[in-house]
Amino acid sequence: MNDSSADTPELASVVHEAHALLERRRFAQAKVVAARGLKHFPDNSELQYITAFAEYAEDDNDAAIKAVEQLLARDPEHYGARTLRAHLHSAKQEFAQAESLWIALLREYPEDADCYAAYADLMLRTLNLDKAARLAREGLRHSPEHHACLYVASLVDLIHGRGDASHLLRLLREHPEHTASSIALVAALTDRGEYRGALRLAQELLRNQPDSEHLVSLVRELKLQSHWTMLPLYPMQRWGWGGAAAVTVAGIVGLRLAGGVLPPALVASLSYTWLIYVIYSWTWPSILRKLI
Fold first, then answer.
1. What distance in Å separates the CA atoms of residue 158 and residue 153, rounded to the nearest whole number?
2. How far apart, in whole angstroms, are the C-alpha atoms of residue 176 and residue 274?
3. pLDDT tens figures, 102-111
4. How many helices (H) and strands (E) does the chain have?
5. 1-92 matches 93-226 in fold
6. How far is it, in rounded angstroms, from Cα 241 to Cα 30?
7. Which of 52, 176, 204, 276 is placed for a possible disulfide with 67 were both Cys, Cβ 3.0 to 4.6 Å?
8. SS3 of 39-53
9. CATH homologous superfamily of 1-92
């Protein structure tokens, strides 16, 4: 009996070691330590959570979901497991489920800045920028130095052309884990046609990583897309070939209809204007790309 007791590790020591490995981002080792502890303490919620979080950190979302569901089946009120499940829903782009979980958590923890920050980040991903800013500000009311809330608030201000961009730059340098989500947000803003906001953010990312060829190319392309001379070509920018086809069909149909009701001289002027616009749409983007 004494030998068996000597072989059993102390639970607090195992949990502490596993957490320390998580903080150092040594996820594989954290899973090994947690697995060793679970052999002796199979129902321990904290070791199960560490295992699930490590799986999530290594992008093995399926394994993380399985571990989280097993933990919540035993301990449905476990805070860490509930927040992790919300993050996993976000990772799978199940945004409605994730939002429901954050709302439920904030009802129970109305002063939790971590929950406000995570919910705000979710709103960023869905491009609900105003709501993201409100959530971030509420989180800062409870924790004025919370870096994730500061990041979201600074990001939204930058996209809208407000505030001091140097603050966001400092946050990106201190917390480089935000860089990937910022680049994803640039792509989302671009897809939605918000080129100026995307450009402002991309420029700050480039200042943070001046040697990044990807960001250099991204900034150049966004300068092209947001240039004032590209405004007449917005349908092509926004909807691509579909937009170009719609504009072409609308122009042809419009000119034919105009021919039956307008004076020939005016129809001729409209036809020349339409021809100039078509030539402009074919040639100007290439010229502007060389100039920028």
1. 9
2. 49
3. 999 999 999 9
4. 16, 0
5. yes
6. 50
7. 52
8. HHCCCCHHHHHHHHH
9. Tetratricopeptide repeat domain (1.25.40.10)
- Six token digits for residue 221: 């392309």
Which two structure tokens, joined as six digits, stand for 34?
A: 């947690």
**At which residue do the structure tokens 């990044």 appear?**
212
SS3 (DSSP) at 91: helix
Of 229, 160, 166, the residue nearest 199 (C-alpha): 160
- pTM of the complete model: 0.68
- CATH fold group of domain 93-226: 1.25.40
CB atoms within 10 A of CB 191: 11
Question: In angstroms, rounded to a whole number, what is the distance separating the alpha carbons of residues 127 and 159?
Answer: 11
Q: What is the per-residue pLDDT for 4?
A: 47
Q: Of 31, 27, 66, 68, which is closest to residue 49 (Cα–Cα)? A: 68
Please give the single-letter amino acid code of residue 84.
Answer: L
